[in-house]
Amino acid sequence: MAIGAEDFEFCTFFLGLNQKELACLEELLQSFPHYDTHKINIVDQSQAVRAELESGSVKFYYEWRNYAIEPERDLDYTECEQLFSQYAHVVNRIVEPKKLFHGQAIDKVMNHYSHSPFVVIMDSDIVFTSDRYLPDMMRLCNRYSYDELAAIGMFYQKTPFRLTLSPEVDNSFYQFFLTAQYRHIPLKYVMMTAAKHLLKRSVKAKRVNSLSRFPRLHPALLLINRQIFIDYEMTFRNLYLDVLDIRERYETKHRIFGDNGSSFLYQCSLAGKRIISIDLEEYVSHRSRVAVSYKKAKGGWSWFSAPSGEDPLQ
């Protein structure tokens, strides 16, 4: 069957902690180019988040192993209601009664809230810069049969997989090359940076502990085949791996993290399906994560960035 515009749904998420998040959501709504055929489904958790914060809970969890203590909270609920009212004609507001982690919210969309063959998951802090996204996705989806194509998105790896790389080269060198392709850094600067790091090889680097990331499909703008997701019982979860590396009598500890896009990528591989890779920057701009409240909290913990990985309040 031919895939048409009616075979797609668009969905984003609103946690509801602060004004910056609300402002980002408004920019997304203003920039969305496909209102002539589609509404945006918004999973709104603001009331569930408000209830949890007012319950006196000490830890506010963003993800399974990431929490803040008394996070910044400055959302104006009146302005929030006004925004939803202003866009009511082009938005389906789904009031989620329970606060969910991001992966859990995507799972609920895929298994319960969505009904179309293809579901487009969007971060609330993207801005559309092109009106070609839907036409291009229709064209790409029609290249394969519906039961073959699992997803369309961008492959991305923010931090290198350190265990497979030479310890004689500084980790920042590998990370620079990973991020250079996404930031369109001029070739001249890339070559200068490479030369500088190669000169350092004369001094053997000490083996050190490291933080790495699994590759992923970027969840900022990710098209998913709903039926494949359901049939193969897929789920969006974070990946947490502790590794003790023993070489030449040296022992180093390594933490490897994968977000929801990492676990989804591996599940698509297990299912033996196809993925189409695209460049998100052809369609959207993506700002830094809007949930900045943990930076202004009274404390907090993240498994990935904490010195030992252990929860100090466990």
Would you give an account of this structure?
This protein has a domain at 5-156 and 216-235 and 273-302: Alpha-Beta Complex (Spore Coat Polysaccharide Biosynthesis Protein SpsA, Chain A). The chain is 31% helix and 26% strand. It contains nine helices and 17 strands. It has helices at 19-31, 46-54, 77-86, 102-113, 133-141, 171-183, 187-199, 226-231, 260-271, and strands spanning 8-14, 40-44, 59-63, 66-69, 91-95, 118-122, 126-128, 149-153, 155-156, 210-213, 216-217, 221-225, 239-247, 250-258, 274-277, 284-286, 299-302. The strands form five sheets. It has a seven-stranded mixed beta sheet with strand order 5-2-1-6-12-8-15, with helices on both faces. Helix 6 packs antiparallel against helix 7. It is globular, with a radius of gyration of 21 Å.
State the main characteristics.
314 residues; Spore Coat Polysaccharide Biosynthesis Protein SpsA, Chain A; 7-stranded mixed sheet; 3-stranded antiparallel sheet; 26% strand
**Extended strand count:** 17
Tally of separate helices: 9
Q: CATH class of the domain at 5-156 and 216-235 and 273-302, please?
A: Alpha Beta
The CATH topology of the domain at 5-156 and 216-235 and 273-302 turns out to be Spore Coat Polysaccharide Biosynthesis Protein SpsA, Chain A
Low-confidence stretches: 290-294
Q: Shape from CA axes? A: globular
- Oligomeric category: single chain
**What is the structural class?**
alpha/beta
